[in-house]
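Example record used in the benchmark description.
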Amino acid sequence: MNSEEKDLKEKKALLIIAFRDFRDEEYFIPKNILEKNGIKTITASSSLGKAIGKLGGEANVDILFDKVNVSDFDAVLFIGGPGAYKLFDNIFLLKIAQEAVEKNKILGAICIAPVILAKAGVLKEKKATVWNSPMDKSAIKILEKEGAIFDKNSVVVDGKIITASGPQYAKEFGEKIINFLKQNA
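Model output (structure tokens):
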């Protein structure tokens, strides 16, 4: 085992999901990429037990939002999906996003979840992307209202903040997070 692999084995990532209707690919693909690289993953949600994805995938919840200690993690990742809409104004999640930035952690959000980061105030003057469609630009409007600079690219990195616009970019999102963890190993 080289020193980079050893350093990655000591890293931990927090994946934050809705208890119902998180987006399966956005959770399972980055989680698998992280774990294959030796990163310990912990899943947080609003309830303990088995969270259910939009496509029926099951995720074991390890910790409740209000019990998260951001200092315990190297990366904090917000997962999207229809259930994430209910989390936009969750005070615990807003605080987690703010603390991740204050403590210089890697902060990621995919799909609709960058809205949580925007509402937490951590995207001010930062480039970010978010899920949108020709019929629905509401998430872009929220990001811009909160001071973010919307970038139409599928995965956007600004400082230690990584955002991705949807499930088809889950692999690229996971790989960017691994690259950051390696740089900070």
